[in-house]
Specification:
heterodimer; A: 276 residues; 6-stranded mixed beta sheet; 11 helices; 25% strand; disordered N terminus; B: 284 residues; mainly alpha; MetI-like fold; two-stranded antiparallel ribbon; binds adenosine-5'-triphosphate; binds magnesium ion
């Protein structure tokens, strides 16, 4: 019990160890409930622009729940209720009058299981831009090419753009989903275990891609894979459940620091594989 | 002793299987029996004139074209009204409401709607469409009446087809800033359309066979000429079948069975179409 409150105090201190540069995304004392169940407890953290932030932690500690707070995907779950402040570019995204559709255009999301739409590769990439009103064929062609190049998929699919998005391999499908997000020109990309359904080579491709994209996008990635967090991220947030089964932020800081010199004993135990 | 026991257990099992198989066969015997009997008795009346001419001598001679056309128009009219309303209600119920007392009430209403005897729909149609809206005894009034009856089916199948669309597709669309309505319009409905269509086709083939309600709202035994306007009275196969079988003395048997055969052929055709749509969709 005591330990838990210690951790909470720690986490507040850690929240002051903020990344360089301005905060793109910010959480302040955020709580998330699913009905009676307290899933995310009192989390505060800042995420700076043009960086990759990894969220790690044992299964069920609330990583996905936390990530989905940034683009209000939890709105889809009727029982979900949130307290606290979540900001994007200094704007409280949970205040009344926020245009959630516009928010999600700027804060895109890639899911754990590749989920291309059951339509052609071309139509998959165009789906967002078309819905946002782009009709011109030339403009759409350009968007498709640019997004697929950015997603490192162009060379593999340029000759079969009219084939179904479901007909390509899992790794290609995931890059297609990334291209689909890039096509609407977001500023932030949230990724929930984007590689967990992929083989090591496809995983490395996506990691390379993330590194390239991080120059121009703010990326937040949830991962189970510690090596992946160490390889790709600039900042790492370690989450764990407390005695009350609510997920809390144990430690947040530079990835190099977290992995070489963790301040919290639990972080050290987790990254060295002693539990979790 | 023990071995003997096991043998008797095997025997019991075998007897049980035989009984189950016989019961299953019993189901298809009437279906096949009816079809064979109908073909055997009605086949001789099927010819070009029967399918393309109007009836003569109170249906004892000539053909049944007006009744065939009347039934086709009824089916189209039914689906014209029942499908759009069914889809819209299905979308609303599955996407825009959460489980509460109102949706439970609506669900109960739909279930009960499906259980209302068809003649009651006929009386409802007479009161509301024929007299209330002053549409008269007409194809239009009959289509609306059958559509009211078909609604329970089109709403239920639309809603189920919509709910069956994987959540991943919706999330993928919402997560790139596509609005909920656009997601429904461009992802959910296209994915659900085979299921929605299957329900619509089955509702249509059911409407084709309805007799009682259309008598009340405008079906006639003999109408001069083919129906040309929605406000015309009309002939329809099931009602024609009823009249030639029950009310015209000296009607040749092959004519009755011929009419029945045409009606069944139309209904089976649509049921098969529904099956094909479903199989095609599953392959995709
Ligand atoms: N829709 C929901 N309704 C109720 N409880 C939920 C819901 N979604 C998640 N939870 C609960 O919230 C807690 C955190 O779930 P979450 O999916 O965020 O964990 P996670 O860290 O992403 O786990 P994993 O690594 O397995 O993906 C879990 O205990 C989970 O059971
Ligand atoms: Mg998760």
């Amino acid at each position: 019990m005591n330990q838990v409150s210690m951790v909470t105090v720690n986490n507040k201190n850690n929240a002051n160890v903020q990344p360089e540069g301005e905060a793109r995304l910010r959480m302040e004392n955020v709580n998330l409930y699913y009905g009676e169940f307290h899933a995310v407890k009192d989390i505060s953290l800042d995420i700076s622009s043009s960086s990759i932030t990894a969220i790690i932690g044992p299964s069920g500690c609330g990583k996905s729940s936390l990530l989905r707070l940034f683009n209000r995907m939890n709105d889809l779950i009727p029982s979900a209720r949130i307290e606290g402040l979540v900001e994007f570019d200094g704007v409280d995204i949970y205040q009344p009058g926020i245009d959630v559709v516009e928010l999600r255009k700027r804060v895109g999301m890639v899911f754990q299981k590749p989920n291309p739409f059951p339509m052609s590769i071309y139509d998959n990439v165009c789906f967002g831009p078309r819905r946002h009103g782009i009709r011109n064929k030339r403009a759409l062609d350009d968007i498709v090419e640019k997004s697929l190049i950015q997603a490192a998929l162009w060379d593999e699919v340029k000759d079969k753009l009219d084939q179904s998005g479901l007909s390509i391999s899992g790794g290609q499908q995931q890059r297609l989903c990334i291209a689909r997000v890039l096509a609407v020109e977001p500023e932030v990309i949230l990724m929930d275990e984007p590689c967990s359904a992929l083989d090591p080579i496809a995983t490395l491709k996506i990691e390379d891609l993330m590194r390239t994209l991080s120059a121009s996008y703010t990326i937040v990635i949830v991962t189970h894979n510690m090596q992946q967090a160490a390889r790709v991220s600039d900042m790492t947030a370690f989450l764990m459940v407390g005695d009350d089964r609510a997920g809390m932020l144990v430690e947040y800081g530079q990835t190099s620091e977290i992995f070489t010199n963790p301040k919290n004993k639990k972080t050290e135990d987790y990254i060295t594989g002693r539990f979790g | 002793m023990e071995i003997k026991n096991i043998k008797s257990r095997y025997l019991t099992q075998r007897v049980a299987i035989v009984i189950l198989a016989v019961s299953a066969l019993l189901v298809i015997i009437p279906v096949i029996g009816i079809i064979i009997y109908m073909i055997a008795n009605g086949y001789s009346s099927l010819n070009w004139e029967f399918l393309t001419a109007s009836p003569a001598q109170a249906g004892k001679a000539g053909g049944i074209l007006p009744a065939i056309l009347g039934t086709v128009y009824l089916m189209l009219g039914t689906i014209l009204f029942a499908l759009p309303v069914g889809i819209m209600a299905g979308v609303y119920l599955s996407e825009y409401t959460r489980a509460n007392w109102l949706t439970r009430l609506i669900n109960m209403a739909i279930i009960n709607l499906a259980g209302v005897p068809s003649i009651v729909f006929g009386l409802f149609g007479l009161a509301v469409f024929v007299l209330g809206l002053n549409l008269g005894m007409s194809l239009l009034a009959a289509s609306l009446t059958l559509a009211a009856q078909a609604l329970a089916m089109t709403i239920t199948t639309s809603r189920e087809a919509i709910i069956a669309v994987p959540k991943e597709y919706r999330e993928g669309s919402l997560a790139i800033g596509v609005s909920k309505w656009q997601t429904i319009r461009h992802i959910v409905l296209p994915q659900a359309s085979p299921g929605i269509l299957t329900g619509a086709i089955l509702a249509m083939s059911r409407a084709a066979g309805e007799t009682a309600p259309i008598i009340v709202v405008g079906a006639a035994f003999l109408v001069g000429g083919l129906p040309v306007s929605p406000f015309d009275r009309f002939m329809a196969l099931p009602y024609h079948l009823y009249t030639v079988s029950a009310h015209i003395p000296g009607m040749p048997g092959e004519i009755k069975w011929g009419v029945a055969l045409v009606l069944i052929a139309m209904v089976l055709f649509f049921n098969m179409l529904a099956g094909i749509v479903r199989i095609k969709a599953r392959k995709r």
